[in-house]
Amino acid sequence: xxxxxxxxxxxxxxxxxxxxxxxxxxxxxxFEAGPLVGPDGRFRLADVRELIASRLHLIPRFRKKVxxxxxxxxxxxxxxxxxxxxxxxVRLTALPAxxxxxxxxxxxxxxxxxxxxxxxxxWELWFVEGVEDGHIGMIQKTHHAMVDGVSGVDxxxxxxxxxxxxxxxxxxxxxxxxxxxxxxxxxxSVKDLVAxxxxxxxxxxxxxxxxxxxxxxxxxxxxSLATLTEGGLxxxxxxxxxxxxxxxxxxxxxxxxxxxxxxxxxxxxxxINDVIxxxxxxxxxxxxxxxxxLHPELVLKVFCPVSVRDDSHKMQLGNRVSAMFxxxxxxxxxxxxxxxxxxxxxxxxKEREQAVGAAxxxxxxxxxxxxxxxxxxxxxxxxxxxxLVCTNVPGPQTPLYCMGARMLEAYPMxxxxxxxxxxxxxxxxxxxxxxxxxxxRDLWPDLDVLEVGIDDSFxxxxxxxxxxxxxxxx
Length: 474
Fold this sequence. Notes:
This protein has helices spanning 8-16, 45-53, 86-89, 101-112, 149-159, 182-208, 211-226, 258-268, 272-290, 335-351, 354-364, 370-380, 447-473; strands at residues 4-5, 24-32, 64-67, 77-80, 90-94, 123-131, 135-143, 249-257, 300-307, 321-328, 388-394, 401-402, 405-413, 422-429, 432-440. It is α+β, with helices and mostly antiparallel strands.
C-alpha cells in the first residue's frame, strides 16, 4: 500500500515542537476591507469559507492530519480527516476600538503562541475585523511539517487571487479515504524501513562500477561539506542564543523598498539577498552594541534556508530546503565593507556548493530510524552552530486579493528553536520587503531597537548607493 508519508525533514518539525517553541510558520497580513464586508457592515465569513473550501482540492494536505506509526517504526503518514470542518480552520475575530497596529500585533502574538491541534489538519486562518483605517487583518499559521517558505507562497497564491474578481471553483466532491489499520501500517512501515538501506546499498554498488564518476562526486561533496565548518564549528556566544524562557512571544515589523535594495545592488554588486543580510546585520550590530556585546571581531553565524525546489515541485507541500551558513561581520562598522564581505563569502559558498553539502546531510535523514531522529531533534535544541535564522522568500510582485479586497502588507514569521530566541523572516511583495521579527518576550524587551536599527541600516546603504550612482553619472 502507498502512503503519503512525511519525509524525515518534515517529521523533524513535529519532534522539535515544545510548548514554548511551536513549530509553525505564519504571517500577518493587512487587507483593504471593501469587498470583504457585506451590506450589513459585517465581514463576509460564510463567503470566504466557501471560497477557500472550493480550492482545497488543489492542496489536498490541507484536509489531512498526521497518523503516527505504531512503535515509531516509520515516519508518520498523512491521512484524510473524516471530521474536517472548514469553520474550525477559517475563523473570525475583532479588535476593540480603535484597532491600532499595536493591538493587532498583540493579537497576532497570542494566536501564534498556541500550538496547532495535531488531531486536525495543521493550519488556521484568522480574519480580524476592526483594524484601524478600515482594514481587515489576517493571521495565518501552518505547521512547518506541511510547508516551507516557498511552498507557503504557492499556497497563498491558491487561496488568494491575482485579480479583484474572485473565482469560486467547481470543486469535485470530497470523500475522505479511510485510514489504514495500525497493524497494516506497522508492517508496511517496517518493510519501507528495510528497503531504504537496501536502496542505498544498490546505489553504492552501481557507483562502484564507475569509480571515476564516484570519486569525483565524493570529492565534490567533501568540498561542499567542508565549508560548513569553516570559521569555526561553534558560533560565538551572544544573547541571541539564550534559551527561550516562556510561551509568550514578541513580533516586530520592518518594511523597506525593494527598489532601494536593487539600487544598492546596482551600486555595489552582490545579490539582493546579500544586501538584505547586510541590512539585517547593521540592525543586529546596533542591538548588540546597546547590549554591550559588540566588538570589532564579532562575526555572527546565520542559518539561511535555501530552496531546492524546481518546477516539478510546484504546488507540492512539505519541505524541500537545504541551507547556507553565512557569517555576518557585525563588528565591522563600515556598512560597505560589511556588504562586500558578505557578497564575497556567499559567492564562494555558492561556488563551493555549500547548500549541496547541507542537502546531502539532510538527505541522510530519510534512512535513519525515527527513534534516532527523535534524539537528533532534541539535540538541535542545544545546538551551538548558528546564532539566528534568517529566511528570505521571494513573493509575487503583483497584488493579491481576497474576495476582491487587495492585500496591502504581508509579514512572515519563522519559528524559534530552544536556543535561537530570534527569527528573522523576509517576504518581498509588490515592491516592498516585509520583515517579520519574532523574539521571546522575556528576552526581547528591546525588540524596537532592532527594528529601528534595521531600518536605519537599510537607509544608510540606500543613501550611499544614491551617492555612488550619482557620482558615476557625472
